[in-house]
Amino acid sequence: MAENKVTILDFKHKKENGGKITMLTAYDCPMARLIDSAGIDAVLVGDSVGMVVLGYDSTVRVTMEEMIHHCKAVRRGVTRAFLIGDMPFMSYQVSDEDAVRNAGRFVKEAGCEAVKVEGGREVSSRVSAIIDAGIPVLGHIGLTPQTASKLGGYRVQGRSAESAGRLIDDAAVLEKAGCFALVLECVPASLAGKITGNAGIPTIGIGAGRHCDGQVLVTHDIIGYFDKFIPKFVKQYAKISGTILEAVRDFKNETESGSFPGDEHSF
Ligand code: KIV
Prior knowledge:
By secondary structure, this protein is of the alpha/beta class. 40% of the residues lie in helices and 13% in strands.
């Protein structure tokens, strides 16, 4: 095991001591290696892989086999960070048994240390069943992309008093069910602050403002690799697409003009 291996206890300590938890997504080994070596606390193999890598128009189409395939690749690149696999749509909705069996695959076949499930009170028995089987669970409330159509689209959640109250209650239910942390996606910063203040477990925000105990973003968004659309909550730290395009065009032009390969690339 790597020195300073991150565990769920580190997240708890960070919340207690006011430290901020960092989490990014990865879907392949080289990216996982870079994220791990940068010292990020947790790597999430998100079902966002469906949109930013596989070209689907939502995360709903992502399968267990696709998730396991990408988790295995990421596992080979991560030695220090805590590795979480995202349970895809319909891998935990039908029954507790299904949820445990599929969560088990993330751990046994892909080497993940925890799984993430979307939803509030409606998934609490799934969460408890998975935890009873010995697998830590990261909850995810607010905008839950797997059920975005039920929410009326990709929109900020918890704006009305009723919906805010529901999210506050869901957070408490998931904490009671045993989640080690909660992702809060697209909720007003003040509500996220309230949930964070109430919760004994860390909150990790995405589009949920600065009061959360940590932040998670999709790596392809922050490096400017996925630029089909850029959500308001994303900060682009690089614009890698432009660099890739330039390199590909240079290769094309040099090959066509005959200036590549040069003597230094030949045997
Ligand atoms: O699928 C994903 O990448 C996620 C995070 C952005 C939280 O669920």
